[in-house]
Amino acid sequence: MRILFSSTWGYGHVFPMVPLARAFQAAGHEVRWATHEPAVAIAAAAGLDAVRTGLDVAGVREVTGRNAQAVAALRPQDRAAFAFPHMFGAWAAPRMAPGLLELADEWRPDLMVHEQAELAAPWVATVLDLPLLTHSFGGAVPAAILAAAGEQLRALWSEQGLELPEYAGCYADGYLDICPTPLQTQSLSHIRRRLEIRPESYTGEPAGGPDVMLTPDDRPLVYVTLGTVFAQAEVLAEAVRGVAALPVRVLVTVGPQGQPEALGDQPDNVSVVTWVQQSEVLRHSSVVVSHAGSGTFLGALGLGIPQLCLPQAADQFRNAEAALSTGTGLVLTPDAMSAAAITAAVQRLLDDATLRAKARAMAEVIAQMPSAAEVAAALDRAGYSGIGGPTTSRP
């Protein structure tokens, strides 16, 4: 069978779908991945047949730059309500749609799988009458934000004589959800068919060796990252100052676009690198300090690690809310963040037995979710016609 995956350009939008794509591939199916130019190499590095069908590098830079200017005056927690409909809806999807339609029409996949922010796929699947599954990259995108994104695409749909469906056409034949129910902060009532799929901590190949993990030491390891998009040097530097004040080892990643030297000289207990194999780092970590991006957030909880969330934008505030509501982590919003506050929060995460127990309990919940291989097999048995039924947790 043939399965066509499609994504936007960010690491956090590509990585969550890689395990399922690989599972289909390992089971002998043909898999292709359509995306914008910056993500072609990311998907190809995962061993997938990746094709550019959207924006080139300059186009993505233009779109992200326009979004940054537009949201600069908004509070960080309010930016997603503008960014998602405009960046992924109005500005990206119409430029992805023609190439994706041409690829799908020529290749004729048996199933399309797209991530929640890639909004050309629902249109293509409707035009070609192909089954479509929406794959999450974290908690559910709020229904109102998806509806607003759909409005930005009304002209695209009407050009084909099609009525604009609800929620920009997402969830047409089902929703593959890497976020366990206890961590959801949004109502799922608008999603009729949902199948959980265990989040797997795929982050590509490392570009720097985390030697700090390999040195025998009784001090706990604290992993500090602000991800691949929001790793502003000043915010990261403040976080590192706060953590480094404790008797711990500190491993810091600055992201693929960052420069370790931008953080300046560091004390002996701090190691700064560009990129690491996050799944390996997490296995050695006692506490995670992060932006609460979904990959890091779910990866840490999958191993029962409590975390300090420093949300900056996007879905990070929703993830931080989930950490608080489940008692699995602590949160410092941008207006409350300081080195001293970070020191106190990390010390509590190291010492608080209740927080640590709740994080371990969440790991047990995540472990019960079906693996990518199990989901691929279930979809194969279903004949790629959708996942059927109401919300469910196992195939």
Write up this protein.
With 395 residues, the protein is α/β, with parallel strands linked by helices. The chain folds into two domains: 2-199 and 369-381, 3-Layer(aba) Sandwich (Rossmann fold), CATH 3.40.50; 211-367, Rossmann fold. Helices cover 42% and strands 14% of the residues. The chain has 15 helices and 13 strands. It has helices at 11-14, 18-26, 37-45, 57-71, 80-107, 121-128, 143-152, 154-158, 233-244, 278-284, 294-302, 316-326, 339-351, 353-367, 372-381, and strands at 2-6, 30-35, 49-52, 111-115, 132-135, 175-177, 194-196, 221-225, 249-253, 270-273, 287-290, 307-309, 329-331. Strand 2 (30-35), helix 3 and strand 3 (49-52) form a beta-alpha-beta unit. The longest helix is centred in the first third of the chain and has 28 residues, at 80-107. The radius of gyration is 20 Å and the shape is globular. Residues 389-395 have low confidence and may be disordered.
- CATH-defined superfamily of the largest domain: Glycogen Phosphorylase B
Q: Averaged pLDDT, please?
A: 90
> Uncertain runs with pLDDT below 50, 5 residues or more?
389-395
> What would the principal axes of the Cα set say about the shape?
globular
